[in-house]
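Re: beginner question about structure tokens

> Can someone show what the tokenized structure looks like for a real chain? I only ever see the sequence side.

Sure, here's an example I had lying around. Input first:
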Amino acid sequence: MNGKGDMYRNIVLISQVSINVMVPTFICLAAGIWLDKRFGTWFTIPLLFLGMAAGARNAYVLVSNTIRQEERRRQRKLQAEIDAKVKKAGQKKIDDELKKGLSGKK
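And the corresponding structure tokens:
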């Protein structure tokens, strides 16, 4: 399941990045075209670049947050494994000490 979950998570991330880039670009493009038709100006090109910059920033923030989240998840998993091993080793040491105490060995 872990492999499938990662695959689906990656597909969702790619879709979110695409939407986060396209929406501001198209909104600014549509606003520029509307302003050009309404006032006869040249707003389309600057607004298009503004939309692309906003989309790139949105994608950067989304991806960096996802990377940070994955790193925290990986560290929690690693810490849980370490804790389990320490607990198991501690329990084994206690069991060995009890066996020595019961058998009278020192």
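Each token stands for a local structural state, so reading them left to right follows the chain. The CA atoms of residues 17 and 59 lie 5 Å apart.
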